[in-house]
Design a protein that fits this description.
single chain, 206 residues, alpha/beta, Maf protein, seven-stranded mixed β-sheet, 6 helices, 7 strands
Length: 206
């Protein structure tokens, strides 16, 4: 079934994902998932025992798209594709989430300093009976960071809403020595893969 218009629903609070969708000319309406309901968050991002990073991001992205699609149906909203995404950072086989404190942010950056880590972003698109999901993996190498530069960065607001404690689109761009993969994927939405899934859902893109 074709969408009734060229607009999609974006099930994400990330301002960076909004910017990236605008960059490729995708019109969207926000469909916000909640974290503070009496029953808990709409979608839990708890890591399951023994769950790998790639399985984790894929599961969370799919759960977000499924829940958002249920909102579309329950509210009888106009039928449009739903796009969701999840991003995580991993090093030494361990998933690094969003730091809850300055101490956690400092510890994460100290761990990433002078080393290569992986950034995984999984995207999911749901539309009527179609559900598609892709995960993009990038390698990011940080330069060796001084204690002063880590302290200065963690005194800003940048680290605290981002997996791994940094955002490549901000001041932390100065930390990045080399990347292999997708710059937009590291930001939170791999545009090549996103466009591919949206075309499959009937959204015309160049």
């Amino acid at each position: 079934m074709k969408p009734i218009d060229k607009k999609i629903y974006l099930a994400s609070k990330s301002p960076r994902r909004r910017e990236l969708l605008r960059q490729i000319g995708v019109d969207f309406e926000l469909l916000m998932l909640r974290n503070d309901t009496p029953r808990g968050p709409d979608v839990t991002e708890t890591i399951l025992p023994g769950e790998s990073a790639i399985d984790y991001v894929a599961r969370v992205a799919l759960e977000k798209s499924a829940f958002a699609w249920s909102i579309v149906q329950n509210r009888r909203l106009p039928v449009r594709p739903v796009l969701s995404a999840d991003t995580t950072v991993t090093i030494d086989g361990e998933i690094l989430g969003k730091p809850a404190s300055r101490e956690e942010a400092v510890a994460m950056l100290e761990r990433l300093s002078g080393r290569t880590h992986e950034v995984l972003t999984s995207i999911a698109v749901q539309h009527t009976n179609m559900t598609e999901q892709l995960t993009q993996v990038s390698q990011v190498r940080f330069a060796t960071l001084s204690a002063a530069s880590i302290k200065a960065y963690c005194a800003t607001q940048e680290p605290y809403d981002k997996a791994g404690g940094y955002g490549i689109q901000g001041l932390a761009a100065l930390f990045v020595e080399h990347i292999e993969g997708s710059h937009s994927g590291i930001m939170g939405l791999p545009l090549y893969e996103t466009a591919k899934l949206l075309r499959q859902a009937g959204i015309p893109l160049a």
